[in-house]
Amino acid sequence: MTCEEGTEPAAEQQHTAVPGEAVIAQLVRTLAADVRVLNEKLIEDRFRAHDLAEIITSMPGIGPLLGAEFLAGVGSDLNFFGTPDRLAAFAGLAPAPHDSGKKSGNLHRPRHYHRGLQRVFYMSALTSVRYDPNSRTFYDRKRAEGKRHTQAVIALARRRVNVLWALIRDRRLHEITPPPVTASP
Fold first, then answer.
1. pLDDT at 142
2. Phi/psi at 96 (nearest 5 deg)?
3. How far is CA 42 from CA 13, 67, 135, 183, in A?
4. Do residues 57 and 68 touch, judged by C-beta distance below 8 A?
5. Beta-bridge partners for 107
6. Distances (CA, A) of 29 to 33, 37, 39, 41
7. What single-letter DSSP state applies at residue 105?
8. pTM of the full structure
9. What is the sign of the dihedral through the CA atoms of 18, 19, 23 and 27?
10. Confidence of residue 105 (pLDDT cuts 50, 70, 90)
11. Cα–Cα distance between 34 and 101 in angstroms, integer?
12. In sequence order, what are the residues at sequence separation of 6 or more whose Cβ sits closer than 8 angstroms to the Cβ of residue 37?
């Protein structure tokens, strides 16, 4: 018999209860929830004061918290990236070549990318599929092409990088236009 085997029953038999333990645990849960709400409110207020806040939140699927995370990831100046393709690569949404001697065209997810930015675009794409008809149409088209759900959402997220880039470059708000209706034969 090892020491570990002999102590298990003894440890299970010990039940030490501190007076007021349940009340204190509930108080800690309540305080933690209050701190979280306060932090979200402070982040939202700080984000709304930024000059790009209205442009960023005009995109369906991006609210103040994802917008703040976007600004934290890229900063205020997108000129650092030069093109939306570089921003997409930085966010891990553009495939990177993994070619070797005889193989070319072998693409994979980049090894180094900003996971926070990838999360921003992925979560906004997921949300926009539910509420934006253009995003839903794009997603459905990718699914019809045979892409899995995750692949279709990543393709939509990559497209949203281009749209957000253009909105910030032109300093204009996103306008939802209904998707074109195709005539059935």
1. 96
2. -105, 140
3. 47, 14, 30, 49
4. no
5. 97
6. 6, 12, 15, 18
7. S
8. 0.73
9. negative
10. low
11. 57
12. none
